[in-house]
């Protein structure tokens, strides 16, 4: 079994080497380098420093949000970006799949998967040769429409000296009366 596997590996490497020599002899070295670069780019592993990972046309992220709120955020994003929702279905309990289409007819698949009450997995699929910037822009806009949890909201650092003026609010209509000047 091991000998057969090694024999297959040697044959594959020999074939690849011969094909490489053939391309090199044809005088098309630029095409060979470009092809090697494309293959290396497709075969490379996904590397990201943020909370989302782009790999082979798919942008994966984890969102701290409830599934219905995330679905609403995707709908709002589609409206903002003027994308058409051509299909939307619930694949399983807690798993939603949507397909958006742009004006050029390009389809973008979005999978939303509930992992916990306030944790969802989001995958934006623009296709193997799709646009990474479009996928990242979609995710950015989805995040802008997500509601901010109460524990993350910015709290004021100081309170006013008095909660309300007992004489009522100051109405600035452009006329400064002596009474209004004294209240400022």
Strand and helix map with partners:
Blueprint: H1 2-25, H2 29-43, E1 52-55, E2 58-63, H3 67-80, E3 84-92, E4 95-101, E5 107-116, E6 119-125, H4 132-145, H5 178-183
Antiparallel strand pairs: 1-2, 2-6, 3-4, 4-5, 5-6
Instruction: Quickly give the structural class.
Output: alpha+beta
Number of E-type strands:
6
The SSE string, one letter per element, is HHEEHEEEEHH
Question: What coarse outline follows from CA principal-axis ratios?
Answer: elongated
Instruction: Give a quick account of the main beta sheet: strands, pairing sense, barrel closure.
Output: 6 strands, antiparallel
Describe it.
With 184 residues, the chain is of the alpha+beta class. 40% of the residues lie in helices and 23% in strands. The protein has helices at residues 2-25, 29-43, 67-80, 132-145, 178-183; strands at 52-55, 58-63, 84-92, 95-101, 107-116, 119-125. It has a 6-stranded antiparallel β-sheet with strand order 1-2-6-5-4-3, with helices on one face. Strand 5 and strand 6 form a beta hairpin. The protein starts with a helix and ends with a helix.
Features:
alpha+beta, TATA-Binding Protein, six-stranded antiparallel beta sheet, 5 helices, 6 strands, elongated
Quick recap:
With 184 residues, the protein is an alpha+beta fold.
